[in-house]
Amino acid sequence: MTTSLTLGTRIQRIRKRRAVLQRMIRTDLSVKYEGSTLGYFWSVLEPLLMTGVYWLVFGLIGRLGRVQPFPPYILSGILAWQWMSASFTGSMRTLRGNSKLISKIGDLPREIYPMQLVLTKGIEFLITISVLVPVAFAFGLRPSLYMFYLPLAIVLQLMLLTGLSLGLSAANTLLRDLERVSRPVLRAWFYLSPVLYPLILVDERASSLAQTLYRLNPMTGILTLHRSAWSGWTMRPRGGGAVATVSQFDSWLTVGYSAIGCALILVIGYLLFTRLEPRVLKEI
Questions:
Q1: Is the pLDDT of residue 221 over 80?
Q2: pLDDT tens for residues 33-73?
Q3: Which of 8, 67, 250, 280 has minimal Cβ neighbours within 10 Å of its Cβ?
Q4: 3-state secondary structure the chain
Q5: Average pLDDT, stretch 254-280?
């Protein structure tokens, strides 16, 4: 039985079928842009438009643009969250949506289906962050050693999304209402993560306990790393209109919280997937 397989055996099975996984990813990417004149530009158009709206509402009208320059700051967060959101919502339907393929190719590891979604969205993320380069240069930012934080952010986010997709893909196959509940949960998670505002606002206005709880959110450290990679340093106003330089990188403690949280979610998602897999196969 599949559930009796050890973790090492499961990894070996996935490695042996990695060519299938790669082919599935290439197919998804080609289908998405097939017949499109502008191709990948459509993937960056939405986050660019959202950045413009948030810049207007929060940066100019709302006077929350304490991070300068605000547009590359907000765009880096939106692109990272786009990968998160697409993987979170899409994972709900990966097993049920591939039910015919699962029945037809019985020896293909079922973990491949949610993993394929996360990796496909991850590649799309890598494609879209290219738009950050001209935006960052346009607002006076230049490459720095902070760019080395980007690979760490990607690895942590990949761990987080793999765990979530494994667990949610199996659970939603058995509990279909989970997909409806997930939408307000994801929306709340968005506003409880530093996507639209700097983390320093939380430190200034929240209690010590609330600050700690906020940093237990895995996306807090991940977004901090993403922002640090592109902006490195930010400006915030002091009294009297002067400015002070503050690092976008909060501390390794915040990243440590995220690393632990991502590892736990990966383990829990894997265990949930293997536990529910026999029931999922009967259901689909």
A1: yes
A2: 766 556 667 777 888 888 888 888 776 665 555 566 778 88
A3: 8
A4: CHHHCCHHHHHHHHHHCHHHHHHHHHHHHHHHHCCCCCCCHHHHHHHHHHHHHHHHHHHHHCCCCCCCCHHHHHHHHHHHHHHHHHHHHHHHHHHHHCHHHHHHCCCCCCCHHHHHHHHHHHHHHHHHHHHHHHHHHHCCCCCCHHHHHHHHHHHHHHHHHHHHHHHHHHHHHHCCCHHHHHHHHHHHHHHCCCCCCCHHHHHHHCCHHHHHHHHCCHHHHHHHHHHHHHHCEEEEECHHHCEEEEECCCCHHHHHHHHHHHHHHHHHHHHHHHHHHHHHHHHC
A5: 94
Phi then psi for residue 6, to 5 deg, are -80, 165
Asked whether the beta carbons of 77 and 227 are under 8 A apart, the reply is: yes
Residue 30's domain comprises 2-283
For 226, the token pair is: 């993403």
Other C-beta atoms lying within 10 Å of the C-beta of residue 37:
7
Give the number of C-alpha atoms closer than 13 A to the C-alpha of residue 106, restricted to the C-beta side: 6
Written as six digits, the tokens of 107 are 């020896």
**Domain count along the chain:** 1
Distance CA 40, CA 188 (A): 29
Are 168 and 265 contacting, i.e. CB atoms less than 8 angstroms apart?
Answer: no
Q: What gap in Å lies between CA 125 and CA 137, rounded to an integer? A: 19
Query: What is the CA 30 to chain-centroid distance, rounded?
Result: 22
**Phi, psi dihedrals of residue 244, rounded to the nearest 5°:** -130, 145
Helix axes 70-90, 41-54, angle to 10 degrees: 120
Q: What is the distance between the alpha carbons of residues 90 and 218, in angstroms, rounded to a whole number?
A: 20
